[in-house]
């Protein structure tokens, strides 16, 4: 059998920044309110002409470079996103842009859990021996779909992309698989807490034949319910994934949660009894970048020399669906 190992990471964020101060010119809010409730200070926004394909390709190329392979070596590209440039899929455009000529590419949608879901999905193709080199990208341009007049949501989100390269290793030795455990979950009964939904209107084409045509509604969210959900469910899946990995919480070197909100990060870490110095947080600078946030935080910590080879990383995503999931892996 084959094991998986993560050999590279990369990130790409827009250079244009919108501060809390800037936001207070658009909606009735303040830096004090936003920073104290969320930890967010600024977020990066994709500018006109900057596509998800652009950001995701840049993140992917950086991960491929760190892995020391060539784009033509990639067998599979999975793009986790909820904000595709093209609803038919954006992964193929990335495949073309980076010159991953032999890769098959597809999108995967699981909102802010997307990166963890992609990590787990990619690993299955390697473990069953089908593919050797997989590029996993999480990317979102939520600024496209935020209601910029709704102060309860527009303060939270930012744009960006992050990526990792996952490769096969021979696993005759049982412990060379670096994805040590995972647990992914969905609960559609809570779907109404967080939506970016299609909204159409009836349009009669000919007598007796009506279809529904329109566009998507900006993001709606029940913030308190999402908070409650995350703080309860995320520790559960991390504990389950650690159990599967045959590890205890104190063996975790780094906790990288989906960067939604500093209060959620603090509460989850506290419930798990993981000390603050092991919690990676960069949301002050980027806000909630949805499917990108975990990979961007991972890449920053790796390039800063915080995360070192052999470190045990517990990661978890949570968000719309509702979906949530954890993965434990060794860097
Ligand atoms: N500035 C100033 N005042 C505000 C703002 C703002 N930006 N937003 C809301 N308020 C006001 C409200 O209008 C309300 O005033 P009112 O009582 O007079 O009506 C008051 O502040 C409290 O509003 P709440 O919504 O109750 O604020 P809460 O304390 O719950 O904080 C927050 C809101 C920060 C969004 C919190 O609920 C939270 O962090 N939830 C988690 C959300 C999250 O992380 N979502 C992303 C999930 S991941 C994904 O898939 C996208």
Automatic annotation (TrEMBL):
Keyword Transferase in annotation: yes
Domain Beta-ketoacyl-[acyl-carrier-protein] synthase III N-terminal: 106-188
SUPFAM superfamilies, alphabetized: Thiolase-like (SSF53901)
EC numbers for this chain: 2.3.1.180
Keywords, alphabetical: Acyltransferase, Cytoplasm, Fatty acid biosynthesis, Fatty acid metabolism, Lipid biosynthesis, Lipid metabolism, Multifunctional enzyme, Transferase
Reaction catalyzed: malonyl-[ACP] + acetyl-CoA + H(+) = 3-oxobutanoyl-[ACP] + CO2 + CoA
Chief location of this protein within or outside the cell: cytoplasm
Localization (cell): Cytoplasm
Pathway: Lipid metabolism; fatty acid biosynthesis
Pfam short name (any one): ACP_syn_III_C
Protein name: Beta-ketoacyl-[acyl-carrier-protein] synthase III
């Amino acid at each position: 059998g084959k094991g998986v190992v993560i050999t590279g990471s990369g990130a790409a964020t827009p250079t244009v920044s919108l501060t809390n101060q800037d936001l207070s010119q658009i909606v009735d809010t303040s830096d004090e309110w936003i920073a104290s409730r969320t930890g967010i200070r600024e977020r990066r926004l994709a500018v006109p002409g900057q596509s998800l394909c652009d950001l995701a390709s840049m993140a992917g190329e950086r991960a491929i470079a760190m892995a020391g392979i060539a784009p033509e070596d990639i067998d599979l590209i999975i793009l986790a996103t909820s904000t595709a440039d093209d609803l038919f899929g954006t992964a193929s455009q990335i495949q073309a842009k980076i010159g991953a000529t032999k890769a098959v590419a597809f999108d995967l949608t699981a909102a802010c859990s997307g990166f963890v879901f992609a990590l787990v999905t990619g690993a299955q193709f390697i473990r069953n021996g089908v593919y050797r080199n997989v590029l996993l990208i999480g990317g979102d341009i939520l600024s496209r779909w935020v209601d910029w007049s709704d102060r309860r949501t527009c303060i939270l989100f930012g744009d960006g992309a992050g990526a990792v390269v996952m490769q096969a290793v021979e696993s005759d030795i049982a412990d060379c698989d670096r994805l040590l455990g995972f647990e992914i979950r969905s609960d559609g009964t809570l779907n109404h807490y967080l939506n970016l939904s299609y909204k159409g209107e009836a349009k009669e084409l000919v007598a007796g034949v009506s279809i529904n045509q329109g566009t998507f509604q900006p993001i709606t969210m029940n913030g308190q319910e999402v908070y409650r959900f995350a703080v309860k469910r995320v520790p559960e899946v991390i504990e389950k994934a650690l159990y599967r990995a045959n590890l205890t919480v104190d063996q975790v070197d780094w906790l990288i949660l989906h960067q939604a909100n500093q209060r959620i990060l603090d509460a989850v870490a506290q419930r798990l009894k993981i000390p603050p110095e092991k919690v990676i947080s960069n949301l002050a600078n980027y806000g909630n970048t949805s499917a990108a946030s975990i990979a961007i935080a991972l890449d920053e910590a790796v390039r800063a020399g915080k995360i070192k080879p052999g470190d045990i990383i517990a990661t978890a995503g949570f968000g719309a669906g509702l979906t949530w999931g954890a993965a434990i892996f060794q860097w």
